[in-house]
Automatic annotation (TrEMBL):
<dbReference type="GO" id="GO:0003743">
    <property type="term" value="F:translation initiation factor activity"/>
</dbReference>
<protein>
    <recommendedName>
        <fullName>Eukaryotic translation initiation factor 2A</fullName>
    </recommendedName>
</protein>
<dbReference type="InterPro" id="IPR015943">
    <property type="entry name" value="WD40/YVTN_repeat-like_dom_sf"/>
</dbReference>
<dbReference type="InterPro" id="IPR013979">
    <property type="entry name" value="TIF_beta_prop-like"/>
</dbReference>
<dbReference type="Pfam" id="PF08662">
    <property type="entry name" value="eIF2A"/>
</dbReference>
<dbReference type="InterPro" id="IPR011387">
    <property type="entry name" value="TIF2A"/>
</dbReference>
<keyword id="KW-0853">WD repeat</keyword>
<keyword id="KW-0810">Translation regulation</keyword>
<comment type="similarity">
    <text>Belongs to the WD repeat EIF2A family.</text>
</comment>
<dbReference type="InterPro" id="IPR036322">
    <property type="entry name" value="WD40_repeat_dom_sf"/>
</dbReference>
<keyword id="KW-0396">Initiation factor</keyword>
<feature type="domain" description="Translation initiation factor beta propellor-like">
    <location>
        <begin position="215"/>
        <end position="407"/>
    </location>
</feature>
<keyword id="KW-0648">Protein biosynthesis</keyword>
<keyword id="KW-0677">Repeat</keyword>
């Protein structure tokens, strides 16, 4: 790293009374320094591009910070707010307020740059499938909303136009826009009256009503929809509450794969019976890794045609984390497993090292792909809260314990941010 260059990584740490910002590794003298003193808050969450931070400071105040300067750039007063989220590029803030009547426009979309509201709508309740109400592709080129029997599309640059077109999908219960580009939307329709559940892929163009790909499933309670970058492939993890084979207390899961060009539609050929524990695309979108099977679980990397490329062995694993550069993988067993971790160099097809991070609740790679962080957080665990940072080969770089650490809704307590690291593994 060049002399005098500001650190390329930052770490957000949230304790019960607020958050503060450390500079990220490598640390001078082996210890982080404080870049932003503690700010009182109840939660904090980054935009997808890492350039803005949303902080809920009280029951009604939401502040937006610029992560380059750590200055507050906008504050919103939203009474009775129950949830809030930013669009991927940090253009919009979306809030969900407690509703007092069915006519309440309790979901509001705000422009962060000028602070004005640009769209209002009513929503009875908030579930994983219905929040955020308005969903954006990662490049914010497409915006849509799940409604009764249809998907409604908006102009992301001008919400005053209202709904610009509608895609009719009878019974639709969940949708997922493709990442970048936002050229496709996947729609899930649950089982009904003896008809199987289905996932359909539609192009997001105005006059489109016919799917480019479709797959049906029986014994389907829930699905997870996982797009790759490039918007060419969709992994569909289908789960049922009951395993008809009586082999698993946790139900049954199957991993399906659909492509937007129609060249592939079917099950991913997993070599061991049992649940699918985790699946993750590489940053390129050209391969994906799966952890699956009854313990000891197996882990395999597949290409875009579902051909196995690399076997990562078996063990007490339920988590796979691919670093943002696509070179390194961490295979781990967290939650109710002992915390074993195996680090792999995917390019060289070799294991780099193994270690343990017991009682880990969250884990992720730094955006420069150089470090791997685990954290033990409340309320999941009330004791032994702390952070561990490992090198890409699994050797421990840093450890810090806390009286109490809290996790956020989706990204957990600890987040590493990256601006322009010169180190590219």
């Amino acid at each position: 790293m060049a002399t005098g260059q500001s650190p390329s990584l930052e770490i957000l740490v949230r304790e019960p009374d607020g958050f503060f910002i450390w500079n990220g590794p490598p640390f001078a003298d082996g210890q982080p320094s404080v870049k932003l003193d503690k700010v009182q808050c109840s939660s904090a969450k980054f935009s997808e591009d890492g350039l803005k931070l949303m902080v809920m400071k009280s029951d009604s105040q939401i502040s937006i910070y610029d992560c380059k300067t750590w200055r507050e750039i906008r504050s919103f007063q939203v009474p009775n707010v129950l949830a809030a989220t930013m669009s991927p590029c940090g253009t919009y803030l979306q809030t969900f307020q407690k509703s007092t009547s069915p006519q309440d426009k309790n979901v509001v979309l705000w422009r962060i740059d000028h602070g004005d509201s640009v769209h209002h709508l009513s929503q009875k309740n908030m579930t994983k499938a219905t929040w955020p109400s308005i969903k954006f592709s990662l490049d914010e080129a497409i915006a849509c909303r799940l409604a009764t029997n249809e998907v409604q599309f908006f102009d992301p640059e001008d919400f005053s136009k209202g709904i610009v077109h509608r895609l009719r999908v009878p019974g639709v219960a969940a949708v997922e826009l493709s990442k970048t580009p936002g050229a496709y939307v996947a729609a899930f329709v649950p089982e009904s009256k003896g008809m199987p559940a289905s996932v359909q892929i539609f192009a997001t163009g105005k006059d489109v009503q016919s799917p480019v790909a479709r797959r049906s499933f029986f014994r389907c309670s829930t699905v997870q929809l996982n797009w790759n970058s490039g918007s060419t492939g969709l992994l569909v993890l289908v789960q049922s509450d009951v395993d008809k084979t009586n082999q698993s207390y946790y139900g049954e899961s199957k991993l399906n794969y659909l492509t937007t060009d129609g060249t592939h539609e079917g099950l991913v050929p997993l070599r061991k019976e049992g649940p699918v524990h985790d699946v993750q695309w590489s940053c390129s979108g050209k391969e994906f890794a799966v952890v699956y099977g009854f313990m000891p679980a197996m882990a395999t990397v597949f290409d875009k045609k579902c051909n196995p490329l690399l076997e990562l062995g078996s063990g007490p694993y339920n988590t796979i984390r691919w670093n943002p550069k696509g070179k390194f993988l961490c295979l781990a067993g967290f939650g109710n497993l002992p915390g074993d971790m195996a680090f792999w160099d995917y390019v060289e097809k070799k294991q780099l090292g193994t270690t343990k991070a017991e009682c880990s609740v969250t884990s992720e790679w730094s955006p420069d792909g150089r470090y791997f962080m685990t954290a033990t957080t409340a309320p999941r665990l009330q004791v032994d809260n702390g952070i561990k940072i490992f090198h890409h080969n699994g050797s421990l770089y840093f450890k810090e314990m806390f009286d109490k650490l809290y996790q956020n809704h989706q990204i957990g307590l600890v987040k590493l941010q990256n601006w322009a690291s010169p180190w590219n593994p």
